[in-house]
Amino acid sequence: MNLNTAIQLLKEKGYKHTKQRERMLEIFVSQDQYIAAKDVLRMIQQDFPSVSYDTIYRNLYLLTDEEMLEATVLHGEKHFRLACYSNEHHHHFICNSCGSKKEVEFCPMNVIEKLQGYQIEHHKFEIYGECPQCH
Q1: Which terminus of the chain, N or C, has less C-beta within 10 A?
Q2: How many CB atoms lie within 10 A of CB 133?
Q3: pLDDT per residue over 20-65, tens digit each?
C-alpha cells in the first residue's frame, strides 16, 4: 500500500486527515518491518515535537482496528507494521532482532482440517527467529 491509498482509505472511512497521521503512515510505508510505538513516537517527534505518546497509541490502534496496520509482540512490547494487502493466504517469519518480516507462502495450519464442523473465520500463524542479516 502506498501513502496516498492509505490516506484515501481513511477519508473514505470518515477519518480526518492530519499531518501527524500522515507522518505516521509515511513511517510505515517506508519501513518493511515491525516498529515499536516508542520508535514511532521518536520519529514523529522529529517533525512534531509536542505530539504525545497517547496520540501515537490512539492512532496506532485506530489504524490497527481499520486493518491498515498489523500488530505483534516482540520482546514483551507491541510492535506494528503496515498490513499486507496480498490476495493470497500467507503467514510471516518475523525477526526478533530487527523486526523484519518474510512472507511464508504456504499454510502450515493442518489443525484446521481436524476442526470439522467448526466455522473458522480466520487464523494467524507467525514464526519468530533471526533473519540472515541478524544471525
Answers
A1: C
A2: 9
A3: 999 999 999 998 789 999 999 999 999 999 999 999 999 999 999 9
Cell numbers 521518536 label which residue?
A: 42
Which has the closest alpha carbon to 126: 67, 84, 68? Answer: 84
Predicted confidence (pLDDT) per residue in 76-96, tens digit: 899 999 887 666 777 888 888
- CA dist., res. 87 & res. 106, Å (int): 13
C-alpha cell of residue 40: 514511532
Cell output for 65: 482496528
What are the strands of the beta sheet with 91-95, ordered from one edge?
101-104, 91-95, 126-129
SS3 13: coil
Distances (CA, A) of 121 to 69, 93, 104, 112, 118: 19, 22, 20, 11, 10
Cα–Cα distance measured from residue 11 to residue 66, given in angstroms and rounded to the nearest whole number: 12
Q: How many CB atoms lie within 10 A of CB 56?
A: 20
Residue 115 in grid coordinates = 476442526
Q: Which CATH number fits domain 3-82: 3.30.420.40, 3.40.50.620, 3.10.20.90, 1.10.10.10?
A: 1.10.10.10
Would you tell me how many other CB atoms lie within 10 Å of the CB of residue 19?
Answer: 11
